[in-house]
Amino acid sequence: RCVAIIDDKVDKLYGEPLKLYFDTHNIKLWKLVFPGNEVDKDISAVEKMLVELKKIKVSRDQPILVMGGGVISDIAGFAAALYHRNTPYVMLCTSIVSGIDAGPSPRTCCDGFGFKNLYGSYHPPVLTLTDRSFFRTLHHGWIRHGIAEIVKMAVVKDEELFNLLEQVSSTLVWTKFGTEIDDLSGDKETFENVCDLIIGKALEGYVRSEYGNLWETHQCRPHAYGHTWSPGYELPAGMLHGHAVATGMGFGAYLSFCNDWITKQELYRILNLLSGLELSLWHPVMCDNMKIYKAQEKMIEKRGGNLAAPIPKGIGNCGYLNHLPFELLQKRLREYKEICQEFPRKGLGIEA
Questions:
Q1: Where does the record place the 3-dehydroquinate synthase C-terminal domain (predicted)?
Q2: What is d(CA 157, CA 221) in angstroms, rounded to the nearest whole number?
Q3: Where, residue-wise, is CATH 3.40.50.1970 in the chain?
Q4: Cα 305 off chain centre by
């Protein structure tokens, strides 16, 4: 048999084809369907999964199939880590976030006490499957939101990936990563190959960063770019994760410029890429300087007493910012807001 934990929205789209696949191979499919929204990413959801796994007597050597996006990847992976202390699972990714970030990640988690990813365990999947054909059923807002995690890896790990993103920009969004290309002018096969290369390079950069520091023995983690201040306002502002991360990336790039780590030209390349993808550079919640500072204090606590904020040190390379006192944070936020006013929508994202 196959026991599958599936996102409820994914089940509506792919539940029947999945059952048909296993029926064809004479394998019984047990589906455990759970919601996969950010508000569902808490310990109670993990507990419910554990109860269901016990009810149907999943054994410790029986790999679970996890199918869905980033939230399901995080909480189902965490449930697998807790169940029998180490139950294997296969991750079948249906979103960009799970496909290149949460899916292959060894870090499984859920939120708690106002902290993002407070509870968790290191428990990588035995296999991660990323197939962009699943992206066809995502609406454009979710495509845009997912691309933020690819931009993240490009800015701090891979200049070639950054150049590819600049080359195709918003075409990635409206073609849904080359899955809807009937209206695309030019060589469709070449564009699809670029889409595959972008996903492959983003995955490679993420896995190299993540698995090189598997147990988080240090906090110099380039893939946390954009994730230092945004966790403090993402949920209160009702933002999609990718848009919140994009604001953090934009602000982080400006801090790099202020530290002479990137040139003005490089700063604007980063901001133009984010804006061209219609991601958020700014959100009104960022006017609450104290909220941002409290988010920073929480992050220092989480990272063992250091801010360790990854920001670009040249495109394709990463440096770490450790000190940003409140007065300077206020000043930099004011300056950054002024810069964002120059961009379309005054730096606001689409469907943020």
A1: 146-292
A2: 11
A3: 2-130
A4: 24
> How far apart, in whole angstroms, are the C-alpha atoms of residue 302 and residue 258?
25
Residue range 227-231: mean pLDDT, rounded: 97
- Which of the following CATH numbers is that of domain 2-130: 1.10.1270.20, 3.40.50.1970, 3.40.50.620, 2.40.50.140? 3.40.50.1970
CATH number for the domain whose boundaries are 140-347 = 1.20.1090.10
Q: Report yes or no: 104 and 44 within 8 Å, Cβ to Cβ.
A: no
The rounded distance, in Å, linking the Cα atoms of 112 and 165 is 35
Look at residue 126 and give its three-state secondary structure: coil
Residues of each domain in the chain carrying CATH 1.20.1090.10: 140-347
Burial of 156 (0-12, 13-18, 19+ CB in 10 A): buried
pLDDT at 114: 83
The span from the CA of 119 to the CA of 115, in Å, is 9
How far is Cα 158 from Cα 114, in angstroms, rounded to an integer?
A: 33
Angle of CA points 237, 44, 142, to nearest 5° = 40
Q: Which residue has the tokens 């063992």?
A: 304
Residue 352 above 80 pLDDT?
no
Tokens of 87: 């139950």
In angstroms, the CA 262 to CA 244 distance is 22
Q: Are 34 and 72 in contact (CB under 8 A)?
A: yes
- Per residue, what are the HEC states of 179-236? CCCCCCCCCHHHHHHHHHHHHHHHHHHHHHHHHCCCCCCCCCCHHHCCCCCHHHCCCC
Tell me if residue 322 falls in helix, strand or coil: coil
Length of the chain: 352
Which of 180-189, 240-249, 325-334 is the least confident region?
180-189
- pLDDT score, position 115: 85
Residue 6 CB burial class (10 angstroms; 0-12, 13-18, ≥19): buried
What confidence tens digit (pLDDT) does each residue in 177-217 have? 999 999 898 899 999 999 999 999 999 999 999 998 988 89
